Structures are given as C-alpha cells and as structure tokens.
C-alpha cells in the first residue's frame, strides 16, 4: 500500500495511477487531483495532455517541468469542487526551502466525454 500523493488517503494504484496511465478522469476533481499527483511525479506529458487544446499553447512544458522539479510538493487540499471548477490549495517548499501555498481556482471543460484543464486563476 502506498498512499496517493494527492492526499486522498487512498492507495495510489486505485486513486490517480489509472488516470496517469490513460483512463480518462471522470470528474474535474479527479482530474485536478491526478494533475497534482503528476506535478509530484514530474509527469509533464500528462500535464500537457490534460490541458485543453485551446489553452495548451499558454503553458510551456519547460516551465511546468521547472516548477515541478524545483518544488517539494507537500500537500493538496481541495477547498471546493462545483460544476466545472475546482478550488484548491497546494503546499510546497520552493527551491530555497521556503514554504509556499499555491491557491488556485481551476476551470475544466469536457470534450467528447474527456475532461480537460482549461485555465487557473488565483483563489483566496
Ligand atoms: Zn490520487
């Protein structure tokens, strides 16, 4: 048993692993959790693949990889998941060891039955 990095308290194999391996995430929240897990694993291709084709150009693989690698991901907290939006806090320590909280409200969109991350705005 190994706990999933997304803090669900479920086993990784029955939580985010199937999504990282290609099963479409059934809800915005499960997609959000799996994307956080992808950050902890530095799985950049998953992060790009699950970003909506229309907004994908706004996100560079290089900067995703840099942020994922430089950060020590500590904890995910889902604050609210309503409709196609998920508000979350992600705790990490940055490259200088400083504790940081990333607060984001993410928007998702379903396309042919598959959920995609569209964009994120700062949350309070
Ligand atoms: Zn998970």
Question: What would your notes on this structure say?
Answer:
By secondary structure, the chain is α+β, with helices and mostly antiparallel strands. The protein has helices at 17-20, 28-41, 44-49, 61-70; strands at residues 72-82, 85-93, 99-111, 114-122. It is 27% helix and 34% strand. The protein has a four-stranded antiparallel beta sheet, with helices on one face. The longest helix has 14 residues, at 28-41. The radius of gyration is 14 Å and the shape is globular. The model has no long low-confidence stretch (mean pLDDT 97). Zinc ion is lined by residues 4, 6, 8, 15-16, 33, 37.
Brief description of this entry?
The protein is of the alpha+beta class and about 120 residues long. The chain has helices at about 15-20, 30-40, 45-50, 60-70, and strands spanning about 70-80, 85-95, 100-110, 115-120. It is about 25% helix and about 35% strand.
Search tags:
124 residues; alpha+beta; Nuclear Transport Factor 2, Chain: A; 4 helices; globular; binds zinc ion
Low-confidence stretches: none
Q: Strand count, sense and closure of the main sheet?
A: 4 strands, antiparallel
CATH topology: Nuclear Transport Factor 2, Chain: A
Strand order of the largest sheet: 1-2-3-4
Number of strands: 4
Question: What's the structural blueprint in terms of helices and strands?
Answer:
Elements (H helix, E strand, L loop, with lengths): L16 H4 L7 H14 L2 H6 L11 H10 L1 E11 L2 E9 L5 E13 L2 E9 L2
The structure holds zinc ion (ZN).
